[in-house]
Amino acid sequence: MTQTTPEAPVRRQRAQIKVRTLRTDRWWLTPLLTFLGLSSFLVYGVWAIIDQSYFVEPYIAPFSSPCLATSCPEGARFLGLAPFGDWYALPPGLLILGLPGGFRLTCYYYRKSYYRSFWLSPPACAVQEPHGKYTGERRFPLILQNVHRYFFYAAILIGLILAYDAVLALVHKPLGLGTWILLLNAVLINAYTLSCHSCRHITAGRLNHFSRHPLRYRAWTFVSKLNAKHQPLAWASMFSVMGADLYVRLVAKGIVAFPYA
After folding, report:
1. What domain of life does the native source organism fall in (predicted)?
2. Residue 142 lies in a domain
């Protein structure tokens, strides 16, 4: 009696596709719009750092808050403090922009956005990327993305300061258009910050039994609902902070002078 052996599995080679993608839709539109949107934020941020028209009582431009130098205009200093002394060579925006800027730069959603739009890694699903190998975020400088959780604490502080600026404007000028613009911006900024994945993990990410921590579970549930809106909140807060900042500067320059500005 002869013994038969099972046939060896047939190895199928990967299909050799010479074109970059077989997609026929406008897959390039999303990374293009993302590139333009993020580029506008970068360009505006650089201009805002240089521009000195950032305060008109009771409004202070978000990109320059908190103002912590003795060179800040009277009434613009946060709580009257000036721990940075005389920083005449450096605009106030440069002193604090690195904190919310670093938070957005290392944000999980923004990573996906600029990886696809600036680095084309990959530009879209089912589209070949131009890079020869993939190393993820295991090497320098991308391994520094892990500091995102620490930028989160700084972003919380900046969000509270912007909320304080908005409430201060509400007390001194409740009918001012700028007051409501600053309030809306503060709400969106804090909502975006709280919707962060790091916030969700810090709230109750390490708990094994939610039943033993009902308050943290409720907080985690709230943050989880915000987290589902992290992408739209990221874009809405980005444009709101640019819009609020620009509005204050236009009022400070005298370009916008509505009766209730």
Report:
1. Bacteria
2. yes
